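Holo prediction — zinc ion.
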Amino acid sequence: MAITQTAISYYGLNYVEHAAEDFREMLDHGCTTVILAVTEFDFDFWRPNIPKIVAKAHELGLKVLLDPWGIGKYFGGEQVSKFLQNNTENRQVSALTGEKLPYACFNTNSFRDYFQNMCLALGREAGADGFFWDEPHYAFPKSYASITGGAGEDWTCRCPVCMKKFYDYYGYEMPKVMNDDVKQFRWREALFILEDTSRKIKEINPELEITCCVHATLNTYYVTEYRGYDNWDMVASSPYFDVFSTTIIAWELPEGFFENITRRTVEMAKKYGKKSERWLMGYFKQPKDFEQVDKVVDMYEKLGVDRLAAWTYRGGYGTVLAAPDALKLWDKIGENYKRVLKK
Ligand SMILES: [Zn+2]
C-alpha cells in the first residue's frame, strides 16, 4: 500500500486571505492535508473565521483536520489554556505530593464538558473533514522510567474526582503508589473523554474522521511511560477512531527506535482495521544530514505506513521552536511529500 496522505500542521488562525496564501505554499510542498491547530483562544475569539478558513482550504484542494491544540494542556502544544485560567479546580494532582498541576483533569465533568462543547461546536460549524487528537496525556507521568526523562515514581491524577471514581469502582482508597488497578483505571478513564466526544462527533456527521495520535513510547517491560494512552491495543481497538497515529521521534534517536515504533504502529493499526500514521519532526530540531529525512520516509513507506504528517508549517519559522534551518527543512519535507505521492 502506498502513502496516500501528507499532512502539515498550521497554527495562527486569523485572516482567511492570509491563510489562503499559506495553503498555496502547502500545496506547492506536496501537502494533501492541513491540520489546523485550534487553540482555546482561537475558538473563543476567531470563531467566525474558522469555517471560512476551512472552506478556503477545501476550495484550494486541501483536506482539513481540526486539532484542539493543547486544550487544558491535556493535548500537546505550547499555547496557554483559558480553562486553566478560569478554573482553579479540576486540575490534575500529583499522587505523591498532592500538588495541583497546571493540567486540566480530563476525568472531571467540568473539563469533559468544556472539551466536548468546543469539539461539538466545531463539528457542527467548521465544515472540516475530521479531528486530530493530539498527544492526549496525564501530566508528568514518568513513572518508573521514561525515554524522555529520568526515572520517577510520581504520577497523576489523584484529584478528588479521580479518587472518588476509583473508590466507587474498586472499593478502596486510591493508593499513592501505582498498582495494576490504578493503571487500568487511568487507561479506562483517559479513553472515555475521547471516545464519548468522538461518538458524538460522528452523530453530527458520520463522515467526520477521527485520528488518535498517542506518544511514540516503547512500552516494554523495562521502559514505560504511563501517559494514559500507552495501552495501544485499547486505543487502536476503539470503534470511534479511524486512524492510529504515533507521535514525532527526535532525529537524533537511533534508527532502530524509528523502526520499532513504526513497525508496531502499522501492526497495531492493521490488527484493528485502522489506517496508520507516522510523523516527521519538522520544527525545533533537524537531522545532522538532511538525507535522513529521505531515509526515514523510505522506511515508513517500506513498513506500510498509510499516512505521513509533519509538525509544522515552514519548520516553525519565526517561533522559538523553529528548526535552525527551518525553511530548508520545510522544503526537504515538501520534496519527500511530492516524491512519495508520485509512487
Ligand atoms: Zn483527576
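READOUT: The CA atoms of residues 90 and 109 lie 9 Å apart.
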